[in-house]
């Protein structure tokens, strides 16, 4: 493969955080968006012959629990009653997945631009400035969406414990994928926040500040040591 002439070893080092961002962004939205949960509830009645009644409850992303219902048999009568779970975690879940998807798409686009269109990227210094602003925005978005998802996950665990009378949970699908999504969210926050420095160096602001400091020091030295 032939790389552009402007692609150097230093550029390869700068691209390494971008590649990591691609991987962890996929892990974040995939573990949350692909979740499927299952509850198996048993009805415990006073009469032993009526105790072996199990209920299966399924739920998944985007976690609109208020739409999840199940039919529970009543011990005192030969009829069933419909119960609904409480809570709607879809705003936090969808916001988390949306940030993950857009972060993955942007980091993928940035990788392509860095490698194949670096001359256009560095022209007039607009590319690095836009990249810097977008990176700061995504860092903030990862902070917000991960905190929202952490709160939603806590509510999800409490709301998936059915409160119907005479019932108790036999088995429950584990929440490991949801917890992993939360961890990946905080990992993405750290990576995007840390990547701000790499993008900031591309803007040339560091060179400008260094040049200004050197000019001030040189001016002061001429004042202190006149020719």
TrEMBL record:
Chief place of localization: membrane
Family assignment from sequence similarity: Belongs to the synaptophysin/synaptobrevin family.
Record's keyword annotation contains Signal: no
Record field: transmembrane: 20-38, 95-117, 129-152, 172-193
PANTHER family per record: SYNAPTOPHYSIN (PTHR10306), SYNAPTOPORIN (PTHR10306:SF16)
One GO CC term, this protein: synaptic vesicle membrane
Record-given protein name: Synaptoporin
Compartment(s): Membrane
Segments forming domain MARVEL: 9-204
Annotated InterPro entries: Marvel, Synaptophysin/porin
Bilayer topology annotation: Multi-pass membrane protein
Keyword terms of this UniProt record: Glycoprotein, Membrane, Transmembrane, Transmembrane helix
């Amino acid at each position: 493969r032939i790389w552009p002439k402007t692609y150097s070893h230093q550029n390869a080092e700068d691209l390494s955080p971008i590649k990591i961002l691609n991987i962890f962004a996929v892990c974040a939205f995939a573990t949350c968006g692909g979740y499927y949960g299952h509850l198996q509830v048993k009805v415990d009645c006073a009469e032993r012959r009526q105790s072996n009644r199990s209920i299966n409850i399924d739920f998944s992303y985007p976690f609109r629990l208020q739409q999840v219902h199940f039919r529970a048999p009543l011990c005192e009568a030969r009829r069933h009653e419909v119960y609904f779970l409480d809570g709607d975690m879809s705003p936090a879940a969808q916001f988390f997945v949306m940030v993950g998807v857009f972060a993955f798409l942007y980091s993928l686009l940035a990788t392509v631009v860095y490698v194949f269109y670096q001359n256009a990227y560095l022209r007039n210094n607009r590319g690095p400035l836009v990249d810097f602003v977008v990176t700061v925005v995504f860092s903030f978005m990862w902070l917000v969406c991960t905190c929202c998802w952490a709160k939603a996950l806590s509510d999800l665990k409490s709301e998936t414990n059915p409160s119907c009378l005479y019932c108790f949970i036999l088995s429950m699908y584990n929440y490991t994928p949801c917890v992993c999504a939360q961890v990946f969210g905080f990992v993405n926050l750290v990576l995007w926040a840390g990547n701000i420095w790499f993008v900031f160096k591309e803007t040339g602001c560091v060179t400008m500040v260094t040049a200004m400091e050197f000019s001030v020091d040189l001016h002061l030295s001429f004042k202190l040591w006149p020719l």
